[in-house]
Structures are given as C-alpha cells and as structure tokens.
Amino acid sequence: MRHEGINSGMSPNASTATPLLAVRGLTTAYRGLIAVSDVSIDVDQGEIVVVAGANGAGKSTLLKSVAGLERARSGAITFFGERIEAMPGHVITERGLAYVPENRRLFPGLSVSDNLRLGSYLYRKRADREAPLERVFSLFPRLKERLQQRAGTLSGGEQQMLAIGRALMTRPRLLMLDEPSQGIMPKLVDEIFAAVQSIRDTGVTILLVEQRLAESLEIANRAYVLQTGRLILSGTAAEVRDNPDVRKAYLGI
C-alpha cells in the first residue's frame, strides 16, 4: 500500500488542541517478536477512530499497550495529557480508559448482574457502583432481561454486549474495543455498531479495532491502517475508504 497523499500518524484536520490519546513512536514486542513498530496515532475527544489491518498486523497489541497489558519497549502514550505507558492496567482504568478485549474475558459462571457489578469495582458507595446500570440497560435491553442468567449461557452477541456493558460500568472517557463483531450472528452485528455510535453520542470517545472495515468506516471519523506492525496509512474515514489499495485489500472492491 501507498500513502496516497494521506498523512501518516496525524489527523489531516488536526487542531492544535491536545489529543485525548496520543501515541508516539510506540514499539512493543509480543512473545519476543516486535508486533508494533514506531507507531504514532491520535484520538481526539468525541471521535470514533478505527484501527484496521490484516490478522497479525499488530492491532490488538497496540490496544493492549495503551491499556497497560503489554509493556512498550519504546515510545510514549499520553492520555488526557498524562504519560501512562509505565502505569499498570488497573491504574489506567482508574484514569478513565476502558478496554474490551477480543476474547471478552467474562466470568462465565457468574450471572450477568455480577459481571456488570464487577465493572464498578472502582467505586465504594453502592449508589455510585449502580449508577451506570441504567445507561447500560438503555443500550442493551437484553441484559436487563437476563440479569440472573449465567454469562456463559449467553449467545455470542449477548456476551459482547455484556463485555461492553461491564466496561461502561467503569464510567470511561475512552473506550477501546477489540473486534466487537467477532463471533456474532449477522443480525446482531448492526446492534453492536449502533451501540458504538450511541456510546460515542453520550460523550465517550471510541478507539475501535474491527475486521468489518466497511461498517466501521461508516461510523468512524478517522482511521489508521497497520501492516506487519507498522502504520502505513491514515486519514479521514472517507479518505481511507476511497483509497484504492484499501478498497482492493480490505473491502473487496
């Protein structure tokens, strides 16, 4: 792929304001191999930003590095103006950054209710812990209907709703989603993407890794494309969608 005149690593219309999340020169190894190499991205407040690429491109490692689950070898990660690359994951969560991993990591033997409440562990008072529940139920009414059902008995789509709902219980300012449509029946995929838009509309910024690039670009503001751990393309969602290499490689056009 070529850059086709699109800026790499910065928004084409970037303002002088400090980004909500700024990743600069990030290099991270996974299982001894360099998975992300010298990657820089910005996420501005109120955006949906998509990270695309083939399997093994380093997308998940990028999110894990930001979430504090993989330690960066070099580079800087700044969230709300504060350096976070050396912080442990639970401290980053306390700062307002929530991460929903590709495998969801639910507690299958616990009820939907208990899984949701585990997401509010940051808050001591019961009222504070339960305050986000109605917001979660408005996004995912199915969860309210299944509160006492064990998480492991839910469908794939319902489990994804629960994983996102649990992350929202932390009251994040930035929500990172890794392949939220994976393993979901097609009829529920639209619900997940609509929920992502609704979450953004409530003021939560979204950083999204997703194989369904066409659907992702429909709701995104901007996008980055990784290839073998390196950033090869960035731009507005429309610019990335219209790039001939993207259309051929990822959109089948």
Report what the structure shows.
- It is built from eleven helices and ten strands.
- Mean pLDDT is 89; it is low at 1-16.
- The chain is globular.
- The chain is 34% helix and 25% strand.
- The longest helix is centred in the last third of the chain and has 16 residues, at 186-201.
Q: What's the layout of helices and strands?
A:
Blueprint: E1 21-30, E2 33-43, E3 48-52, H1 59-67, E4 72-79, E5 82-83, H2 89-94, E6 97-100, H3 112-118, H4 126-130, H5 133-139, H6 141-145, H7 156-168, E7 174-178, H8 186-201, E8 205-209, H9 213-219, E9 222-227, E10 230-236, H10 237-242, H11 244-249
Helix pairs in contact: 3-7
Features:
four-stranded antiparallel beta sheet; 11 helices; disordered N terminus; alpha/beta; 253 residues; globular
- pLDDT < 50 stretches: 1-16
Q: What spatial form do the alpha-carbon principal axes imply?
A: globular
Secondary-structure content class: alpha/beta
- Oligomer state equals single chain
Average pLDDT taken over every residue: 89
- Termini separation: 15 Å
Query: How much strand content do the residues show?
Result: 15-25%
Q: Sketch the topology as an H/E string, one letter per element.
A: EEEHEEHEHHHHHEHEHEEHH
Strand arrangement, major sheet = 6-7-8-3-9-10
Indicate the radius of gyration in whole angstroms.
18 Å
Biggest β-sheet strands, sense, barrel:
6 strands, mixed
- DSSP helix fraction: 25-40%
Task: Figure out the total of helices.
Answer: 11
Strands, total number: 10
